[in-house]
Amino acid sequence: MKLRGFTIARPQQIAGLLLLIMLGLCAWNISREPLSADDYRVARCGREMWERPEAIAGYFTSCGNLNGDGFFGYRTAALPLSLERGVLLATDHFRKPENRLYTEGSLNGSLWEARHEMVGVKWLLRLPFVFFALWAGGGVWWVSRRLFGNEGGALALALYVFCPAIIRHATHPSNDILALWGLYGLVYTAIGVGHALQGPRKKWRPRIVLLTVALGLTASAHTLAGIVGWLLGAVFFFYVAERRRSLVLPIMAYAALGALLVLFVVFGFRPSVFLYLFTGGSARCWMGLEAAKHFFLQPANAGISIAALVSLLLYATTKRSRYFGNTVPLLCVLALMPLYTTQIITAPWLWAVPFLLTFIGGVFADVLETRYRKTYLLLAGGVIVAQAGLCVMTLGGWLR
């Protein structure tokens, strides 16, 4: 079956089934976990960004200036709630005055609060992040399949779907899942622009605009993710551009300026809040191996850890695995895994996970083309089954 040039064949069906399983896991996790105080804080401050009630003097929201931990997450979490409030306000006009829910000056029915009249808050607050996690999973499959074929794409996506850390961050308001989505797309969009420069000029502008938007949204999720993404993208862009390398720095500079404009829009056109981006310290970071050790030594990630170790050994010993498609995600993992922020709490190690799974998919796809295909096919299948079981046990609380 074809849908406007997009063929829905067996690979697409498998990818769709995996993403559907991920949606089910996320829904299960959301249903099991009640709303927390942090959820209410994000919802309140995000709604203030959209609905603009009376602000506290000197601050953007009642949460302050948010310490630079990403406005994108607050707006994403609160948008469905603000839309629901808008629908309630619209339908309220069709009720008789004595039956209206919202009345001016009423404490229980004020235009701003009235929490008791909103339904499905837990789902409305968390499902947008599930959507971005699914979108990122689709990106992992798309990139891995185009680079490594159907088997590499399926393996990378399967490990992504059954990664407990991804599921947990996707089912709570989290700027980290948005930074993961933006950073992965940003790096491969920069590479795509480099390839586009080898073709006709009419293909340059759309990809440069996409690069600019990707950089702006990534930075609005987390400043450090935007900076690291710009640096990684510039390096790989420069490598791919070849005879057009003189255009790399101007394009990346224009992308950075456009990203600042995107940030200014996300910050509500508030100059004082926008300037706080440069003084809040959210991009302060250092390097260490504690987060990487915790991720790879955690029992819940045993399948991914085994696959990563095998892939690294194959990359080091097999020449056919050492090429640009496999090296790019490996370098991204090495750049992101050791990072940790010193000003705010965040998880740069999580941003590295899609690149790690892309690397695993690429190396396994290479070795599956050798005479050892059956052995590594069984290993890949065993890793997927084991990781799926560990994911379910972890989300269910049976494995810590």
Automatic annotation (TrEMBL):
Keyword Transmembrane: yes
Domain of life: Bacteria
Keywords, in A-Z order: Membrane, Transmembrane, Transmembrane helix
Transmembrane segments: 123-142, 154-171, 177-197, 209-241, 247-266, 295-316, 323-341, 347-368, 375-399
Name of the protein: Glycosyltransferase RgtA/B/C/D-like domain-containing protein
UniProt organism field: Granulicella cerasi
